[in-house]
Amino acid sequence: METKDYLNAFYQDCDEEGRLLTRHGKVEYITTMKYVDKYLQPGMRILEIGAATGRYSHALARRGYEVDAVELLEHNIEQFKQKTIPGEKITIRQGNAVDLSAFTDNSYDITLLLGPMYHLFTQEDKLKALSEAIRVTKKGGIVFVAYCMGDASILSYGFRRGKIHEIIEKCMIDPETFDTFSNPWDIFELHRREDIERLRSHFQVEPLHFVATDGYACHIQDLLQEMDEETYQVFVKYHLAVCERVDMLGYSNHTLDVFRK
Length: 261
Fold this sequence. Notes:
With 261 residues, the chain is α/β, with parallel strands linked by helices. Helices cover 43% and strands 20% of the residues.
């Protein structure tokens, strides 16, 4: 099977839209949009690469921005189209993050790469996806790149769900350093901050933010669901106050690397 086949099988059964609507998923969404909002200006053009069902693309289009979206999976594209409402300045096309040849250089003010790096397993593909995202972004434009983090997965899946011995036996982690190793059938590629910084170092860009987009929320999902709304809002406020602290990054399931071209 090819990577696309594994992803198709996974996302046919995965309610990604629903995940972002849970309380822990909302933390990730609120945090990502907060950082996008820092750089948005009227009239900007936005490209979302790996747009999935369009949670971010539609939100931005409904605020009046011109949004183009690229998505690999037909299942997600169909859901994306169903969510489009009259008046949105939005397009969706099928495409791959490692080949954006349909798009011209220096075209977008904001480029979102919020999903593809989860599912790219070779250095070559990761660098190509970053290169393409940077190429289509205007000079001075902002690129947002999301990653899945290894240590948070070891804690939540390995220890919290009791799978640590299984993933050691499957050689998915180094039992001494706890570095992670993934294949396409594992669906998600996992990183540490130093891995992400090495990838970014191949390009002449200006780092702006490195953000723990869901922070500790992924480890207390049940508790968040049980909180009263006032307490939940205090947690969100706390999270936003500490989400760029270096000592919080490894606990986050997802991170956001923000840089200027």
